[in-house]
Write a structure and sequence with these properties.
The protein is of the alpha/beta class. It is about 40% helix and about 10% strand. The structure holds zinc ion.
Length: about 200
């Protein structure tokens, strides 16, 4: 059996494929905005804050119109600062998943700091949204070798961080029986690359 035949046989009821709609509600947490002088500049801050203040509501209405469920990856700092907007995402039936605290690069920070970010995210999601998220997207698209084990320990069952396929695949984690499910994104399917610049 070839790989494509194998994949085709997995779709139920004659379906030929599927798609996951995912939005990163980063707000103004881009690294350059939080860690440098850009944080002090109102135009850059509002550029990011437009997401939770205005764009989110429009996206939620659009998803309602088409009865489409989606996933929102949100830095926990955004949940703290826009709690009502983030509660509306959960209230309207969508999934919310982890995306760092302040949109950290998981490659650039230590294992201890990564653990702190995950613990802080779990606390904030529980406190403001009443949920334990199952999904995680690394803000910078990379991580350390120890990150997958840390994610499993934090109750995460899937990641959407990597680029290794156009179908989901499994990441085996040394020392753990259960693998991490990876639902990869593709740059050509990501509007950031074409719109942000
Ligand atoms: Zn992001």
């Amino acid at each position: 059996m070839t790989i494509s035949q194998q994949a085709a046989s997995l779709w139920p009821q004659g379906k030929r494929g599927c798609m996951a709609l995912a939005f990163d509600l980063d707000g103004p947490t881009g690294d350059a905005m939080l860690n440098g002088t850009l944080w002090q500049k109102a135009d850059y801050f509002t550029f990011g804050a437009y997401g939770p203040y205005r764009a989110l509501e429009r996206i939620l209405d659009l998803l309602d119109d088409h009865q489409l469920p989606a996933t929102f990856f949100i830095p926990a700092w955004v949940v703290e600062n826009w709690p009502k907007q983030c509660q509306a995402i959960v209230g309207r039936g969508h999934e919310v998943a982890y995306h760092g605290y302040r949109h950290e690069s998981f490659y650039a920070i230590s294992a201890e700091k990564q653990l702190w970010v995950m613990q802080k995210s779990r606390e904030i999601f529980w406190q403001f949204l009443g949920i334990r998220a199952e999904g995680f997207r690394t803000p910078s698209g990379d991580w350390h070798p120890e990150t997958p084990a840390m994610l499993l320990e934090a109750g995460v069952t899937y990641s959407s961080s990597m680029r290794g396929d156009d179908r989901p695949y499994l990441i085996s984690v040394p020392g753990y029986e259960r693998p991490l499910v990876e639902i990869p994104g593709r740059w050509e399917m990501d509007d950031y690359a074409s719109i942000a610049y």
